[in-house]
Design brief:
Helices cover about 20% and strands about 25% of the residues. The protein has helices spanning about 80-85, 110-120, 130-145, 190-195, 230-235, 235-240, 260-265, 290-300, and strands at about 35-40, 45-50, 65-70, 95, 100, 120, 125, 145, 150, 155, 170-175, 200-205, 205-210, 245-250, 270-275, 280, 285, 305, 325-330, 335-340, 345. It is globular and about 50 Å long.
Length: about 350
């Protein structure tokens, strides 16, 4: 859906403040916008998070932090859509507090090389999951990085994450991630997917859940019984209670292997974000319509935003699907706004359309 020209300047999708107030909610100014950029990199994930800067250095909050999760499939500067997007919006001397790799698959980590090459990065996080020589070369670039003259801090594996400090106003939680007990978690690529880091951010009353490629079932399994990572997340009552979120970045690009019914009920999102492109997997393009339909059936008021918006109708292929369908999520801790593009033109979801 395209909007009339008069509506193109500002597209707002507002979420209600329905969650319990964390510690610093009352102190978050209305103008203190946290931004989460879901960058269209074609088939892959690339997320850039920016906190608000109050201009007061050293106060431990509102310090203008920069965090990335994944980076998409293209590591070379010339084809790196993630790097291009950041360069157009960030100062050359921008420092990144954290580069996070949810899991070492080729549609997730290579694009982070652009950030490592061209900016100072202070901390690196992953699940310490091995995946061949290409990923080892990537890790060599990570280890060579320096921040303020000091070696980058490596946080590999859940036991080494600690509590990320990206400002006292922002709560960051690692709900799941490698290393994991492989029993019942599949093999090969499925096992790597199910070791994805699952991260929740909370800012005021608004919260955001990033699932990587963590799965909940096989494609042919019924959606009523969770398996894999979703089953583990739901089996612990404390973790299950933390899944409720305003915005969900859906797992595994919206594949049928994600989003079982108990998981959907636990997260109960107001907005659903899908990062995908036009790469066919055994003839199937992601997201699966059946997966998105489960969310619309759960709550017809959910609004779905996609980085492959209109790509099929436009006849795009895997070579042309990074066409500017970016999604920018903004919140001041009280409400959440979505500003989305389709082929670089603003659009807004007006219904839950799978």
């Amino acid at each position: 859906m395209r909007l009339a020209p008069a509506a193109l300047l500002l597209l707002l999708a507002t979420a209600s403040a329905a969650q319990t107030l964390p510690r610093d909610t009352v102190a978050i100014p209305d103008t203190a916008w946290l931004e989460i950029h879901i960058v269209d990199v074609g088939q892959g994930d690339a997320i850039w998070i920016r906190t608000w800067d109050d201009g007061v250095p050293g106060n431990g909050r509102f310090d203008g932090r920069n965090i990335t999760i994944d980076g998409g499939p293209n590591g070379s500067d010339g084809s790196n859509s993630f790097l291009k997007y950041i360069r157009e919006r960030a100062r050359p001397d921008t420092r990144f507090d954290a580069v996070i790799v949810s899991h070492p698959h080729d549609d997730h980590y290579p694009g982070a090389l652009g950030v490592l090459r061209h900016y100072e990065v202070c901390n690196y996080y992953d699940g310490d999951t091995p995946n061949g020589s290409r990923f080892n070369q990537f890790l060599g670039t990570v280890r060579a990085e320096r921040c303020n003259g000091q070696p980058i801090q490596l946080h590999r594996g859940r036991a080494n994450f600690g509590t990320p400090d990206w400002g006292s106003e922002l709560r960051a939680e690692l709900l799941w991630g490698a290393p994991i007990d492989p029993t019942g978690m599949g093999s090969g690529g499925t096992l790597i997917n199910n070791g994805s880091l699952v991260i929740k951010l909370t800012y005021g009353t608004q919260s955001f859940l990033f699932m990587g490629d963590a799965e909940g079932k096989e494609r042919d399994d019924p959606p009523g019984t969770p398996r894999y990572a979703e089953a583990r997340l739901l089996s612990d009552s404390v973790t299950e209670s933390r899944l409720k979120s305003t915005v969900l970045k859906i797992a595994h690009h919206g594949s049928e292997t994600s989003s079982t019914l108990p998981f959907i009920r636990a997260v109960d999102p107001e907005f659903l974000v899908v990062s995908s492109g036009r790469e066919a997997y055994s003839g199937t393009f992601l997201p699966d319509r059946s997966t998105l339909q489960r969310y619309c059936t759960h709550n017809p008021q959910i609004r779905i935003y996609r980085t492959d918006q209109n790509d099929a109708a436009e006849g795009r292929s895997a070579a042309t699907d990074n066409d500017g369908d970016h999604i920018v999520i903004r919140t001041n801790g009280k409400r959440t706004e979505i500003r989305a593009l389709s082929a670089d033109q603003p659009w807004m979801a007006s219904a839950c359309i799978p």
